[in-house]
Specification:
With about 180 residues, the protein is mainly β. The chain has one domain: Immunoglobulin-like (Sandwich). It has one helix spanning about 5-20, and strands spanning about 25, 30-35, 40-45, 50-55, 65-75, 80-90, 100-105, 110-115, 120-125, 135-140, 150-160, 170-180. Strands 1-12-11-6-9-8 form a six-stranded mixed sheet, with no helix packed on it. A six-stranded antiparallel sheet has the order 2-3-4-5-10-7, with no helix packed on it. A hairpin with a 2-residue loop joins strand 2 and strand 3.
Length: about 180
């Protein structure tokens, strides 16, 4: 290999590596919502990523019974979930400051959970190989009998990437309201 060919190959490899480091996130456009019974699917990037909020059993007024939910981050093959932040809130029907309690079931993921101003924030970064498959979180909304809840607010910010010679990064963001199904 002569010197010119060697320098050209090195420059091309360096440009590819640098492009991966400097490239920013590409926003995945929200393309709509699909509702199937107690499942709400937020669709991004023509189906590249779907945020599903599933209410596992109906809520009932006047009882202090936990309402179980599952939140699933699902992406097409080839993408990986690098990290996410989910803000969760269940405001009371009367508009007062007494939001329903939210509890997260145990998870194998390295999660951070914070509570501020009525919001419960669940976040994870650097998921590595765990982000190659769907990410599912189980949670419970616990309304009080005197303060019924009509909706679960989900404020999602999900970071995804796709491998190849240059790793491409994506971001899906959306605030959605999931009405609680009643018994």
């Amino acid at each position: 290999m002569n010197r010119r060919t060697f320098l050209g190959a090195g420059t091309a490899a360096g440009a590819v590596a640098l492009a991966g480091c400097l490239g920013g996130d590409t926003d995945l456009d929200w393309t709509g919502e699909s509702v199937d019974g107690r499942e709400h699917h937020q669709l991004f990037g023509d189906g590249a990523f779907v945020l599903t909020t599933r209410q596992l059993s109906p809520a009932s007024d006047g009882q202090r019974r936990p309402v179980p939910f599952e939140v699933v981050l699902h992406h097409r093959e080839g993408l990986r979930t690098d990290g996410f932040r989910l803000g969760l809130r269940a405001p009371p029907r009367d508009g007062s400051a007494f939001d329903a309690a939210l509890f997260l079931a145990s998870s194998r993921l390295p999660l951070r959970v914070e509570r501020t101003d009525g919001w419960t924030t669940v976040a994870a970064d650097g998921l590595g190989s765990a982000g190659e498959s769907n990410v599912a979180l189980d949670l419970f909304v616990v309304p009080t009998p005197s303060r019924p809840v009509d909706e679960l607010l989900v404020d999602a910010d999900v970071r995804l990437s796709e491998g190849g010679p240059v790793r491409r990064r994506y971001r899906a963001r959306r605030l959605s309201s999931v009405p609680l199904a009643r018994a």
